[in-house]
Amino acid sequence: MAVSNSLVQKAKKQTITAFLTGDAVKNKINQMVGGKDGQRFITSIISAVSINPDLAECDHTTILSSAMLGESLKLSPSPQLGQFYMIPFNDYKNNRTVAAFVLGYKGYLQLAIRSGYYRKINVLALKEGELKSFDPLEESIDVELIDDEEIRETTPTIGYYAFFEYMNGFKKAIYWSKKKMLTHADKYSPAFHKDATKGKSPKYDRVSFADFEAGKVGSDSMWLYSSFWYKDFDGMSLKTMLRQLISKWGIMSIELQTAYERDEALLHNDGTFEYVANETSEPEVIDIAPPPQADTPPTDGSSIEDSFFFDNGQA
Questions:
Q1: What is the pLDDT of residues 64-77, one digit of tens each?
Q2: Is residue 260 within 8 Å of residue 252, measured between CB atoms?
Q3: How far apart are CA 63 and CA 18, in angstroms?
Q4: How sure is the predictor about 307, in pLDDT bands with cuts at 50, 70 and 90?
Q5: Element (H, E) at 55
Q6: Higher per-residue pLDDT: 179 or 311
Q7: Of the candidates 311, 287, 315, 290, the residue with the CA atom closest to the CA atom of residue 48
Q8: CB atoms within 10 A of CB 103
Q9: What is the pTM of this model?
Q10: By CB neighbour count within 10 A (0-12 exposed, 13-18 middle, 19+ buried), where does 222 fall?
Q11: How far apart are CA 24 and CA 7, in angstroms?
Q12: Could you tell me how far CA 78 lies from the centroid of its own chain?
């Protein structure tokens, strides 16, 4: 899904709408997507960009490449659907902002269901009081879910459960406690800390995740918590559970393999890609190359990706 070098110059100092509707780019889109679906594809990108002004500042060719990959997987870039996201990253190495393809957990579910291998597949955050028992040997679970959705929504999460059943009857299930997930996130995400941490000066100190959840963070310090693990811990956890389950025990279609391999990747013009995240098992947004002073807050008080991934309340 690479964008040719001849289109790169077209992205200079243009709005995303002007870039996408220019003759050269529009013809390229029609060739790759199909004339009938070309306008729908362009509209979906413009709509996604309009939701997040920071995305409009990205190199437009990287937006197009990410969207093309999503289109090839027949997934929607709509943040409301949560199938995949085009996420802004600061590429200090090349002095630009780029958009990378990040798969949402709903995208994993869509691709798995579409593969035809699975009779059932699901992932769920379990709330306090719901889990009676989980047997890791038999992989059997006993739960009593809270009926009232409003009450359930406000009840603290205590763990995460994911399972699938193949068409031939084979089943696999895993359960992680929230404590285990916190340890996992703390280990693999460079921007997430489950415990309080000390910075170079008091203004760089981070509170523990428990205190963050309790709202013990001032608005002037929110830039320190730009990791998606802070913004939507449950959403990130659901994606992690699906990746753990499918990559270790699931059958992966060609589409699912492609999405798995290119998740959190920046697509280059020559067809290659590089991971912009630190760990391929989590969609953690970090800088491709660190800024001169990593602890210096952004001038506008928030990180480039702060306003996008889960701000719409979608997991």
A1: 999 999 999 999 98
A2: yes
A3: 14
A4: very low
A5: helix 53-56
A6: 179
A7: 311
A8: 28
A9: 0.76
A10: middle
A11: 7
A12: 13
